[in-house]
Amino acid sequence: MPKGIWIFVEQAAGKIRKISLELLSQGRKIADQTGEPLVAVIAGEGIAPLAQEAAAYGVDQVYLLDSPQLAQYTTGVYTSALTKLIREKEPQAFLLGYTAVGKDLAPRLAQRLGVGLASDVIDIEVDSEKFLICKRPVYTGSAYSFVEIVTRPVLATVRAKSFPVAESTPSRQAEVIERTVTVDPEDLKVLVKDVALLVTSRPALTEADFVVSGGRGMKAQENFAILEGLADVMGGAVGASRAAVDSGWIDNQFQVGQTGSIVAPTLYVACGISGAIQHLAGMGASKFIVAINKDPEAPIFSVADYGIVGDLFEVVPLLTEEFKKLVS
Ligand code: FAD
Fold it and tell me: Membrane-crossing residues (predicted)?
């Protein structure tokens, strides 16, 4: 009896996050190839309207876990609620985004369920014997490992932008199943009292099509304003190297790299960043890379599609002016 390819759907501000749309789109293909139904799990409070949005991306069934206890993500409550559902329904695969939530939740689920986990997956291949083979970068992206998880469900976190978002079919319907959430008292270890949202008009770093990042060459916190100017012209996000973060010039949520966010925009502009391997691990999959560095020997130029040898304080304002002309 087919038990399904399940996708954990994340939402932000009442909309399904792009990474989850990517997973639903790829999940549909995997479901078709394996003969399994595609199932979405949506957890939160007041999330019922999202069921139709998920259905439009080809979902057969939606499990709605709608409860005030799930209004804010906390490890214990989500682990408890999802473990129960997975144990009961025994899906074949359970895929999450390689996001802050996915990175936290998936290992807990793996431990509770006693199953293997493939993390930071960038491709999933259907194999007639081995079921799903997960491709993931290792050694900061200089090699790949191909992982077969022999336990069920195949649990995997998938990197943003690994798969395109399919066309939606708004008229498509799915069976919606509402679940009552019961959380074991021992899992209620954390109570979120308040959430302070960062108000920004810029897209999330991992979802942006255009990212402009600054490194130690930015020299001071206030100089990031010139990168923000360029990002805003392009409707993009601002990122940073760890050196800039460690210098206290920008919050660590903006760090790109091995120990920061992994991005894959259409255009990545690296300003005053040398191109250490740990930084490249976070942005090497970008479609086009532009590097601005005054050192012609900087390693970033070896991965750049376009390199500008020059002073970023002269080049970035000029680029901003040129981009303004393009978009006006
Ligand atoms: P630098 O290497 O100091 O380079 C600054 C560059 O700016 C130079 O190339 C210089 O020529 C250029 N420059 C200076 N002034 C100007 C100017 N006016 N105009 C143009 N160019 C100019 N790093 C990350 O970024 N992300 C990570 O996630 C990360 N994780 C790490 C994990 C581990 C375990 C370790 C050990 C390190 C990690 N690092 C990470 C650190 C990494 O090794 C580098 O130290 C870091 O990326 C360097 O940052 P940078 O390129 O900004 O600084």
Answer: none
Residues 254, 129 share a domain: no
Give 47's contacts (C-beta < 8 A, 6+ positions apart): 11, 64, 66
pLDDT in tens, the chain (328 residues): 669 999 999 998 789 999 999 999 999 999 999 999 999 999 999 999 999 999 999 999 999 999 999 999 999 999 999 999 999 999 999 999 999 999 999 999 999 999 999 999 999 999 999 999 999 999 888 899 999 999 999 999 999 999 999 999 999 999 999 998 888 888 888 888 888 877 788 999 999 999 999 999 999 999 999 999 999 999 999 999 999 999 999 999 999 999 999 999 999 999 999 999 999 999 999 999 999 999 999 999 999 999 999 999 999 999 999 999 988 7
Task: Give the Cα-Cα-Cα angle 283, 284, 290 (nearest 5 degrees).
Answer: 80
Let me know whether 65 and 103 are in one domain: yes
Look at residue 201 and tell me if it is in a domain. no
Coil, helix or strand at residue 260: coil
> Are both 25 and 165 inside the same structural domain?
yes
Ligand 1, pocket-test mutation among 259, 278, 319, most atoms within 8 A of CB? 278
Nearest CA to ligand 1 atom 4: 274
Angle between helices 75-89 and 100-113 (to 10 degrees): 50
- Which domain, by its residues, includes 265? 208-326
Q: Which of 120, 153, 185 is the last residue of a domain?
A: 185
Pocket of ligand 1 (CB under 6 A): 215-217, 241-244, 255-260, 272-274, 276, 278-279, 282, 292-295, 298, 311-313
Token pair in block for residue 219: 């020299």
Same domain, 115 and 243: no
What CATH number did the domain enclosing 46 receive? 3.40.50.620
313 phi, psi to nearest 5 deg: -70, -15
Q: Are 215 and 272 in contact (CB under 8 A)?
A: yes
Structural domain contains residue 191: no
Number of domains present in the structure of the chain? 2
